[in-house]
TrEMBL record:
Residues covered by the Photolyase/cryptochrome alpha/beta domain: 1-130
Cofactor(s) this protein requires: (6R)-5,10-methylene-5,6,7,8-tetrahydrofolate; FAD
Protein's name in the database: Deoxyribodipyrimidine photo-lyase
InterPro entries assigned to the protein according to its UniProt record, in alphabetical order: Crypto/Photolyase_FAD-like_sf, Crypto/Photolyase_N_sf, Cryptochr/Photolyase_FAD-bd, Cryptochrome/DNA_photolyase_1, DNA_photolyase_1_CS_C, DNA_photolyase_N, Rossmann-like_a/b/a_fold
Lineage: Bacteria, Pseudomonadati, Pseudomonadota, Alphaproteobacteria, Hyphomicrobiales
EC number(s) from the headed UniProt entry: 4.1.99.3
Coiled-coil residues: none
Family of this protein: Belongs to the DNA photolyase family.
Binding site for FAD: 224, 236-240, 268, 368-370
Keywords: Chromophore, FAD, Flavoprotein, Lyase
PANTHER family: CRYPTOCHROME (PTHR11455), CRYPTOCHROME CIRCADIAN CLOCK 5 ISOFORM X1 (PTHR11455:SF9)
An MF annotation (GO) of this entry: FAD binding
């Protein structure tokens, strides 16, 4: 009888334990992707993620096709779709790679129990993470809340296995499931076509992921530790969306680094380690995207300011480094990590807007939107998270811009309307002399906004509000 392999955020053929096990079994393989937007508690994917998913499924379909397997696409509740696929194909094994978002893991646990009750074989495998969040424990048996000891424990205790070879020719099941075409999944609206910048920037799919990894290792790994904070250099791997959709595994990344003597290797490994840590936190704190990790933050008085929120979302705060980041996000579905921190800090601390509004916007617009990394990072910036930035650390958007984009190349690339300003004023246009603004064809308040808030005053306000929250007053 056939084996069903469920695909979710593991859209790859290489290093795919579930697929390799199915191929080894030798029975016909049914590859199935279920778009489950019906099961309660599963968070709906954002628009940028849906765009990525569409193209990633297309790439996966092609790769599976080369091995002889059809990719079937379906919509509905996971359990019901799998039951139908079993009825239609006569499959007696169902395999998948594990998910660690607690609401997704719960769906999978119910599925496994249901299948086993019926006497079928249901088995799950690793692949998304180097560590099993349930198994890595502190000395006292709890979970880790601080990154450094977490990463030390990972390094000391977790064996990083080699990637699993892709199967050769597989016996693909040739029947019909009444499945949908990719366009019928309806992931991306045809009008309006907002995805031009995404198409120009990305190549979803595992071949794109492998090409990115090789290019990064050859070109940028040496010096990663020095250059990773400078957004105009594009010196980071930009693997995040590929990782988020499981087109590449951390096992493959670590295996490729094994022979590397480059200076940036250990820093890069530890950044991938932050992803492990975020999942560790999410696994043990299912509400990480909705609830403050530190409950004292529930008393925080956030401002309800829709106009300011909209200005931030659209890159119109008047602070060039913040606006450049938000526009990069809108155009390409991605933002450089340093700028994510600056933009998030601005929303939370300068505008005093609840971090959850920022988390939601990123969730909708990032191609790498990731349940663990996004929630953990937002809480980190807010100070409400585990191992978070201290509340009195408030990024100064001007000084951050001058430090990490000293020639203003990043800002000029994203905000051409202020591009003619000299380096000295590129991060503080409001200080430029009127004649210079005129020569540069800039009319502050018209062609580019004046600052939404005065950073100095906003900083004082944030310190007072945070302090009174801490004092419980
Ligand atoms: P590289 O520097 O090349 O790092 C390699 C990989 O390590 C990344 O792809 C990522 O998987 C992981 N990584 C790197 N930095 C971090 C970090 N700080 N935390 C967790 N993992 C990290 N990352 C996401 O993948 N999805 C998100 O939704 C997301 N939201 C974020 C929101 C905010 C407010 C902030 C400050 C950060 C967020 N990050 C998120 C983390 C980080 O910004 C991105 O992972 C990184 O910018 C991706 O670019 P890269 O692949 O070139 O990173």
């Amino acid at each position: 009888a056939p084996t069903i392999v469920l695909f979710r955020r593991d859209l790859r053929v290489d290093d795919n334990a579930a697929l390799a096990t199915a191929a080894d079994r030798g029975a016909p393989v049914v590859a199935l992707y279920v778009l489950d937007e019906e099961t309660k508690d599963l968070r709906a994917m954002g628009a940028a993620s849906r765009w990525w998913l569409h193209h990633s499924l297309a790439a996966l379909g092609r790769r599976l096709g080369q091995t002889g397997v059809n990719l079937f696409l379906a919509r509905g509740r996971t359990g019901e779709v799998v039951a139908k696929a079993i009825a239609a194909s006569g499959a007696d094994w169902v395999l998948w790679n594990r998910r660690y978002d607690p609401s997704e893991a719960a769906v999978d646990a119910r599925l496994k129990a249901g299948l086993r009750e019926k006497g079928l074989t249901a088995q799950s495998f690793d692949g998304a993470l180097l560590h099993e969040p349930l198994l890595l424990k502190t000395g006292s048996g709890g979970f880790y809340k601080v990154y450094t000891p977490f990463w030390k424990a990972m390094t000391d205790k977790v064996h990083v296995r080699d990637p699993i070879d892709p199967p050769g020719r597989v016996d693909g099941w040739q029947g019909e499931l009444g499945s949908l075409s990719l366009n019928e999944l309806d992931l991306v609206p045809t009008k309006p076509d907002w995805a031009q910048g995404l198409r120009q920037t990305w190549r979803p799919g595992e071949e794109g992921a492998q090409a990115r990894l090789q290019e990064f290792i050859e070109r940028d790994l040496a010096g990663y530790e020095r250059r990773r904070d400078f957004p105009s250099r594009l010196a980071t791997s930009r693997l995040s969306p590929h990782l988020a959709f499981g087109e590449i595994t951390p096992f493959q990344i670590f295996a490729s680094l094994r022979r590397s003597k480059s200076s940036g290797t250990s820093k890069f490994r530890s950044e991938v380690g932050w992803r492990e840590f975020s999942y560790h936190l999410l696994f043990h704190n299912p509400g990480l995207a909705q609830r403050n990790f530190r409950p004292e933050f529930d008393a925080m008085s956030w401002r309800d300011d829709k106009r300011a929120l909209r200005a931030w979302q659209h890159g119109l705060t008047g602070y060039p480094i913040v606006d450049a980041g938000m526009r990069e996000l809108w155009r390409t579905g991605w933002m450089h990590n340093r700028v994510r921190m600056i933009a998030a800090s601005f929303l939370i601390k300068d505008l005093m807007i609840d971090w959850r509004h920022g988390e939601k916007w990123f969730w909708d617009t990032l191609v790498d939107a990731d349940a663990a990394n996004n929630a953990a990072s937002w809480q980190w910036v807010a100070g409400s998270g585990a191992d978070a930035a201290p509340y009195f650390r408030i990024f100064n958007p001007v000084l951050q811009g001058e430090k990490f984009d000293p020639q203003g190349d990043y800002v000029r690339g994203q905000i051409p309307e202020i591009g003619a300003l000299p380096d000295r004023y590129i991060h503080r246009p409001w200080e430029a002399p009127a004649s210079l603004l005129q020569d540069s064809k800039i009319e502050l308040g018209k062609t580019y906004p004046t600052p939404l808030v005065d950073h100095g005053a906003a900083r004082e306000r944030a310190l007072i509000v945070y302090q009174s929250m801490k004092d419980g007053s």
